[in-house]
Structures are given as C-alpha cells and as structure tokens.
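Trying the structure run again after the queue cleared.
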Amino acid sequence: MHQSSRFASVRRRTRLAVAFLRDAQGSASLEFITVGMVLLIPLVYLVLAMSAIQGGALAAEGAARQAARVFVQADSLANAEDSAERAIEFALNNYGLDTSDASVQITCTPNPANCLARHGYVTVTVAVLVTLPLAPPVLTGTFPVHVPLDATATQQVSQFRGSR
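Done. Tokens:
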C-alpha cells in the first residue's frame, strides 16, 4: 500500500511539471533573446575597444621603430628629423590615428649634441591617445574616452657612418 501512494505522488508531480511546461511555451525564446542581447552588446563593445587599443599599440610601436631606423640612416640631422617625422606620420595614419594626438621625443646617447655620431644610440618615444570606439564627445569631461599608449625604440648609429 505504501508503494501505490509513492507512485501517486510521482504521477501528481509529473502532471504538475507537464502543466507548468505547457504554460511556459514560447517564453524561452523571448528569454534567450533578452539575455543574449544583454550579454552580447557588452561583449561586442569589448571586442571593438580591445581592437582599437591593440591597433593603437601596434601603431605606436611601429612608428617608434621605423622613426629610429630612418633617423640613424640619414645623412644629416635635418634629414634625420624629417625622415623620422614622415615615418611616424605614415605609421599612425596607417592605423587611422591622428598625428595631432601623438607626442614624439627623440633622445641621443652618449652625446646629445651629436645624434648621428658613430656608435651613438638614438631613442625614439612615441605616445598616442587612442579614442575608445562609439564614445560621444559629450563624455570627455566625465569619463575617460582616451587610452594613453606609448612605445620606445632604440637604434645604434653605424660604426661606418660617414665613411662613404
């Protein structure tokens, strides 16, 4: 007798579960769409923001590296500065960054007065501000809408410089 009451209890729970599932038909797709959008929109923005930051990091690194390379290969200091400026402008424009948002610092060691001395080292530092995607200009004072990035590259002036 105890066995039959257990089966009746199981049947009753099964009927209640089936009735509940019949009443809930159609709401699963709505819940899936709602939860999916709540999770998908921030994920898409995160991907966009990370790709913008990665692009800015690659732009700064490429600009610093190329500027240092062309600087040490130039014939004169004026040509070196012009070549480095063009290399930085090209690298930043290639990644869609504005050159007005960049700052460049060129240092020379061991003799800062003679950057193109044999065995000298030229260090180029490029700092850029990467704007976060879809950030309205209204938020400029309230939230940080720029990510500062910088890169540094050092090249040695050839020991054979000026021997041509």
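Residues 71 and 79 are 8 Å apart (CA to CA). Worth checking whether this holds up in the mutant runs.
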